[in-house]
Design goal:
Helix content: under 10%
Number of helices: 0
Shape: globular
Largest sheet: 7 strands, mixed
Strand content: over 45%
């Protein structure tokens, strides 16, 4: 599976961004697709995930109510809509897949896209 992330950028606090993660190589029917982020000097952390087959979504507490993960089956793409962004959301955001069960542990996901830098600053 190859993953291509896009959509990062600079945004003011309170603003919005939408990240995209386009997948190719094989169907994602059996997988969870997750978004992670890694801020400078910090460990990579799980942000949100979607079960491709069912569409069920999962969020870390800090993302609930502000971030929305969704998938487009026809485009084999997962999106992360991020609203009400805060400076502490600044990080490199990465999409990952290959796990058949939801887990926040990065090493459980064998396939990763390149990162998309999100900077929230005034």
């Amino acid at each position: 599976v190859q993953l291509q992330a896009s959509g990062g950028g600079l945004v003011h606090p309170g603003g919005s961004l939408r990240l995209s993660c386009a997948a190719s190589g094989r169907p994602l029917n059996d997988y969870i697709v997750g978004w992670f982020r890694q801020a400078p000097g910090k460990e990579r952390e799980f942000v949100a995930g979607v079960a491709w087959r069912s569409g069920r979504t999962y969020y870390v507490d800090s993302a609930k109510g502000r971030f929305t993960i969704s998938r487009d089956n026809a485009k084999n793409t997962v999106y992360l809509q991020m609203d009400s962004l805060k400076p502490e959301d600044t990080a490199v955001y990465l999409c990952a897949t290959g796990s058949s069960f939801l887990t926040p542990v990065p090493s459980s996901y064998p396939y990763w896209g390149q990162g998309a830098l999100v900077t929230v600053s005034s």
